[in-house]
Design a protein that fits this description.
about 15% strand; RibuloseP-bd_barrel; lyase; EC 4.1.1.23; 12 helices; decarboxylase; two-stranded antiparallel ribbon; alpha/beta; pyrimidine biosynthesis
């Protein structure tokens, strides 16, 4: 994604405001390297940074992250829950994080993990994936466990506006396998999700706009990603125990579409802007070196 392509709102109601998400993500990753940094202002990190656990501390934390990272890192991933817990003041800060990160050229992936049906899913799509909404990000995370088809309003809104989604497929939490590894006929539930995303991404170049979330610490992959033709958000390396070697082993032929995500390992370097930026760049360079990703 070029600087001029960063989610600026258009005054034209008829013309698309941005290129398709897969193309924008591919461009910005080629320019800035394959790294997604989470902006996760949980109470422990606020304390570690010497900040109060209130809306003012939240604002200082979040905007320091934006200052340090938004003009260097390809993707920033604010976790909505850590803003929502402060009520309306927290949402105001989240709106600033989204807008100012996009202005600096970063792609903003809002981690909301929404999953609902019908008009409610359409309302979430209006909030996060539609031009004119103050919470509209470049992409959001979605949960498909009411059925992949329940995501349709969000998928349509994302495609229409040049945004993307990252659908939970194989997550690292210990409770996940009872659902995600369960069989749906001959396939696992996770493979059903992969296949549905691949069907939507088929034929899109350079890649489709429907990505998947696959944890770095899941052990054996157990699904076939060859046909996905979309990005893979891979949290869990670093503080959560995953390594870059794990990522190489897990993803093999799909490695070129992997976007490793780090939160705590980078954020612990704060609160100084220079230290935070330096840690993010060190992490990015390590990913490039380990994966051969250019």
């Amino acid at each position: 994604m070029t600087q001029s392509g960063s989610n600026s709102q258009s005054n034209s109601a008829s013309a698309p405001t941005r290129a398709p998400f897969g193309a924008r993500l591919t461009t910005v990753v080629s320019q800035r390297g394959p790294l997604c940094v989470g902006i996760d202002p949980h109470p422990g990190l606020l304390t570690q940074w010497g900040l109060a656990d209130d809306a003012n501390g939240l604002e200082r934390f979040a905007m320091t992250c934006v200052e340090a990272l938004a003009d260097e890192v390809a993707v920033l991933k604010p976790q909505s829950a850590f803003f929502e817990r402060y009520g309306s003041k927290g949402i105001v800060v989240l709106e600033r994080v989204i807008a100012e990160s996009q202005e600096a050229g970063a792609i903003v992936l809002l981690d909301v993990k929404r999953g609902d049906i019908g008009s409610t899913m359409a309302a979430y799509a209006a909030a996060y994936l539609t031009d004119g909404s103050p919470l509209a990000a470049d992409a959001i995370t979605l949960s498909p466990y009411l059925g992949f088809g329940s995501l349709e309003p969000a998928l349509q809104a994302a495609e229409k506006s040049g945004r993307g989604v990252f659908v939970l497929a194989l997550t690292s939490n210990p409770e996940a396998p009872e659902i995600q590894r369960a069989l749906n006929g001959p396939r696992s539930i996770a493979q059903t999700v992969v296949d549905a995303a691949a069907e939507r991404n088929a034929g899109v170049r350079p890649i489709g706009g429907i990505g998947l979330v696959v944890g770095a610490t899941i052990g054996a992959l157990g699904v076939d990603l060859d046909a996905l033709n979309g990005p893979l958000l891979v949290p869990g390396f670093g503080a959560q125990g995953g390594t870059l070697s794990d990522i190489r082993t897990l993803f093999g032929k799909s490695l070129h579409n992997v976007l490793p995500a780090s939160s705590r390992d980078v954020l612990k370097a704060g609160p100084e802007v220079f230290a935070l930026r330096s840690e993010a760049l060190r992490t990015r360079d390590a990913i490039v070196s380990a994966t051969g990703h250019h």
